[in-house]
Give the backbone structure.
Amino acid sequence: MAIKKHNVTIDNYAVPRVSGIQVYQFVRSETSTTSFAGSQRVDRSAPKFRVIMTVAIADAAQMQTLNNFAKAITNQVTFPFGNGYESKTMIIKLPTIPEPIKAYGSVSGQSYYKDLTLEMEEV
């Protein structure tokens, strides 16, 4: 059984072991007014994408790479949406880094991070 279920790339870096992803659209601003005749008028911004993904297991180097992407202001992200893929310029929120787990029997002291969550939204 493979851990990776979703193909996500950030600036041509294939994110390893993406086990879960939520993709939805939202609007940043919306105003609603009622005319004198009683009709409703709605003015809203263009829909933007928000992506929340979970990386099942990441080693220290992969976690650092993902953290560096978050430190950059914008990134080109390709993610699954519907029957295909979308490619958008996104801002990645700095992730909450989980407690590292030491590999069982590892002499080198290799650390792994489990269930790393990355949230991002379209610019």
Observations:
- Helices lie at 60-71.
